[in-house]
Write the structure tokens for this entry.
Amino acid sequence: MMREKPILRVVSKNLIPPIMLFALYVQFHGDFGPGGGFQAGVIFASAFILQSLIIGVAEARRVARSALVRSLLAFGGILYIGVGFAAVAMGGNFLDYDALDPHDPVHGQHLGILLIELGVGITVATAMITIFFTFAGYEPLPSEPAPDPNREAPEREDLAQAVPPHEGRR
Amino acid sequence: MIAVYWQTAMAWLTQLEPHFAPLQVAIPLIAAPICVLIRQRRIAWFFTLVVTWVTFAIAVALLVQVRSSGDISYAIGGWEPPWGIEYKVDLLSALVLVIVAGIAAAVMPFARVSVEREVPNPRIYLFYTMYLLSLAGLLGITITGDAFNLFVFLEISSLSSYVLISLGRDTRALTAAFRYLILGTLGATFYVIGVGMLYMMTGTLNIADLATRLPALQNLRVVEAALAFLLVGVGLKLALFPLHTWLPNAYAFAPTVATIFIAATATKVSVYVMIRLLYTLFGGTDFFATTGVDEALVGLGMVGMIAAALIAIFQRNVKRLLAYSSVSQIGYMVLGLALGNVAGLTAAILHIVYHALMKAALFMAVGCATTQARVVQIEDLAGLGRQMPVTMASMVVGILSLIGVPLTVGFVSKWYLLQAAFVAGDWAIALVIVASGLIAAVYGWRVIEAAYFTDAPEGRAEVAEAPLSMLVPLWLLTGLCVLLALNAEWTMTLAEEAARALMNGAAAGVVP
């Protein structure tokens, strides 16, 4: 596929790094302008999705291995709630970012938002990648015959038996 | 040496004590992703066990705090209540927290053998992840004082329970989970539409704040519509009779541990939400008197009590039978809360606690039988009364409690419900309550007959009693079913106080 579609290949190759960079911009600019973890995560995941559309899911999976993606998926959530626990440990209320920096509450707010949005971003990006891989990379079980898209689906014997041809379904 | 550790631990605990309310939810919530990182199924089980016990300890501590020093209000993130999200623990929510966390903790020792038997091994850690998420969601629903936050937790608990159900061995578990997903999402959507309408009219999402603002707006059609949306949404979640169709298959085909947990807690928490809606959120308005909400709920509750119990008689699958019995028992709770007097509300609250205990015990007994003898249909129970005497004895206690025989908890809540019916002056309701108990005796008898009065089929291998790790939690819950009936004052005073507080709160909220 790579060899056959030079335009797709070249364009996507040039697009993927800026997409990722833009995702990081949306992520870390979130507390000054529109943006934030969710949007950034989706944009970041779209880079991976584009890549797997062009070079195939199997190749993309070699970069984003499922163990890694799954761990990051969990890590984002832990980071978010962990900030809450950290605030309690530092003497504030749960998720009270003021407590995160004992000298300057405003700085604490910045830090808190940055960290929880990072958690959101990581989880959303990896969730999107997981969802895409799960649907696009569906591999039939060894017992199932692989469907061949170039041939017509064989008639299912169980259905043919259940509905005799002369009666048909009403 | 030990004394030093003990002192440090105690110092930590006193420091953490004011934060118990958010920790109640946050601990299982953070434990769920940690469980994903653990992956190893035995470690994941042990980790979940520890987390649920800690959660239960916190719930008990919260109940003690509420009893000793009144309601707890906690501002998440330091944002003061009507603006920020408030966690609020009063007597009713503390009671529901204890029962939800308690069931979750009691199920865990039981879970190891049962889950390894029923869930594919590579997915076991995901099962526990979803279990913890579901627990966090249910606790969150109970503890939050914010109507929208409640919706978020509703979704957390529902989404994870769809996954729990879909992990069942039977392929029909998938369709059951899908059906629950569709109806559950509908319910959640209705709830959020209702909350949206209220927010549009009042500009606030805090339940206590809403309660003070709604009486002034109660003539508006929008507020009435909001009440309707909220009630239908919650009605779907709690499987109120005509909206119960997702429940039987979901309970029947889920892994046993998921069935025990969901059957004992999810619908009860939804009943709790309905009480909150009617007595706290709309407590200040006179909707109860003017819109016929009470009559509708009383009617649906009674129809559910009878109809679902009748359907239960004709079930062949044991878990489906118990599921229909749950729908019927939910009718009791809805009837109790809709009668609008203290006795009725007390009965509803008591039945939340008691039914959670007895259904958990019953499903656990079925779980033991399934693990040891692959019991699916009622006929499969044949002869087990002799071969698994401990398990089946607990099943008998559970069934007696469902029927409402004296010396079991089922009798206590039914007694209160009958009193409520007399207070309301409606003999027909009392008759329906008694009739429903008699029908429960019919379907209960079918199970007992199969277990004790039918011989084991020829050629079945000898069935051994379930392992201790399953029997101990089973008898813990069964024992509570009897103990709380013999020593009924303890739960009764709690429930009655909670009911009075709700009634007074509702009465005080009325703005002249």
About this structure: Chain A has a mean pLDDT of 80.
